[in-house]
Every structure is written in structure tokens, then in C-alpha cells.
Design a protein that fits this description.
Elements lengths: L24 H13 L3 H6 L1 E11 L2 E6 L1 H11 L5 E12 L2 E11 L5 E13 L2 E9 L3 E2 L8 E5 L9 H10 L6 E6 L4 H11 L3 E7 L5 E6 L3
């Protein structure tokens, strides 16, 4: 089999402007998805080699971008219009010598609308960084209005698990029908770890959790009992 002449060449002796670290392929995939969920351009940039290449098949048409900084900005721009994004599902595994990263996000907007988007990427990794990525995207798919009638929202402000959030969460979720979902937004960072644990302990299902660029934590829980 002939060698792939389109392979991106790695700069000798360097992996870009960041300190070299050795990451397992699975953890690199998780790191990439976490950075994308937070829309953190700097963390996204560290996932890529400085000479990385992205080829993407997206609904407007094929795109190609080069360089870690450029690629990071492309990803954050794709998700930049949403008020919040929540990770619904993700997985990282190997397909022979390629890292496969798959993820689905729910994007929520200030007008109450929401969309789903899923992307699949196959990556060439060298020295712990993505050197080349080939990606296919579903596009931003609107969720039907019928699927949104059971979504309730609760803005908890500055409340955290040490300042009344558990009690208010119990009250809010008890007020919605069984099987319906409650989207909780708070500015208390510790809630990202504490509230999902509380919800599961109470018998509910954590559907998704994420963060906004302004630091707000967003957690969606389906009432179980």
C-alpha cells in the first residue's frame, strides 16, 4: 500500500509552544471533549500539534484549517452562538492507529430553543498531540418543540451545595412531573461536582452537565421519582 502523501509533517524535535507531555490516546480524547464543552480555546489549542491539520465535512461544505491556534478558534466559533452547551454523550477509542473521538452536545439559546449537534473525528496523534483530524459533523439540528415541553429551567443564581442549593433543588424537581427534566444554572463552581451526586442519590438521572463561557454551571436532571 502506498504511503499517504497528504500526511502532515511534524516539526523536528518539537510539539508546538506548550510543554511536551505524554498522554494516553483515550485521555487526550477526553481532554479535547472537556475543552470543547467549556468552549476553552486555550485548552483546545493544547490538544493539537502546532502544525496540525483539520479537514472537516460540515453542512455548508468541506473545510480545511491548519495550525493549533486556528483550529481551536474554528471549534469555539462553531459553538459560539449558543447560550449554553451541554455534553449529552461522548466516547474515545482506537481504530487501528487512529484515535476516534465522538461527542454529542445540546445547545440552548436565550429564546428557549435548543439544538443537538454530533461530530465524529479520526485523529493521527504524535507525541501526545493531534497532528491531523478528519471530522464529519451532523450540523446544528433543532429539537422538536414537542420534545421540549418537559424541560423546566431553574436559575439558582449564586447558590451552591453549602448555601441552600440542595433544598431548593429538591423543591424545584418535586414540582415537575415524573420523567420531565430540570435544567439548573448556578454560578457556584462546586455545584458541577456536588449537584449530580445529590441528584443520583435522590433517584434522578443526570442527563448532561456543562459550563458557559461566563463561568455558569449548567446541569440537566430528569426526575426519576
Amino acid at each position: 500500500m502506498k504511503a499517504d502523501s497528504s500526511r502532515v509533517e511534524e516539526a523536528p524535535g518539537t510539539i508546538g509552544h506548550t510543554t511536551a507531555t505524554t498522554l494516553s490516546l483515550a485521555s487526550l480524547g477526553e481532554q479535547f471533549v472537556a475543552a470543547l464543552a467549556d468552549r476553552d480555546s486555550k485548552k483546545l489549542e493544547t490538544c493539537f500539534d502546532s502544525k496540525a491539520r483539520l479537514r472537516a465535512l460540515v453542512p455548508p461544505g468541506p473545510q480545511e484549517h491548519r495550525g493549533a491556534l486556528v483550529i481551536a478558534r474554528v471549534f469555539t466559533a462553531w459553538f459560539g452562538d449558543a447560550d449554553t452547551i451541554q455534553l449529552v454523550d461522548s466516547a474515545s477509542d482506537l481504530v487501528a492507529d487512529r484515535l476516534h473521538i465522538r461527542y454529542r452536545f445540546r445547545e440552548s439559546y436565550k429564546d428557549g430553543a435548543s439544538e443537538l449537534i454530533e461530530q465524529d473525528a479520526f485523529c493521527l496523534v504524535e507525541q501526545g498531540r493531534i497532528l491531523a483530524m478528519d471530522l464529519v459533523c451532523s450540523g446544528h439540528r433543532p429539537e422538536s418543540s414537542g420534545g421540549q415541553t418537559d424541560l423546566h429551567r431553574f436559575d439558582a443564581g449564586e447558590l451552591g451545595c453549602g448555601s441552600g442549593l440542595p433544598q431548593e433543588f429538591r423543591r424545584q424537581i418535586a414540582a415537575i412531573p415524573l420523567g420531565s427534566s430540570l435544567e439548573v444554572t448556578t454560578r457556584e463552581p462546586s455545584a458541577k461536582e456536588d449537584l449530580p451526586s445529590l441528584a443520583r442519590m435522590l433517584g434522578h438521572e443526570v442527563i448532561s452537565q456543562g459550563a458557559c463561557p461566563d463561568g455558569r454551571v449548567v446541569i440537566t436532571v430528569r426526575r426519576g421519582k
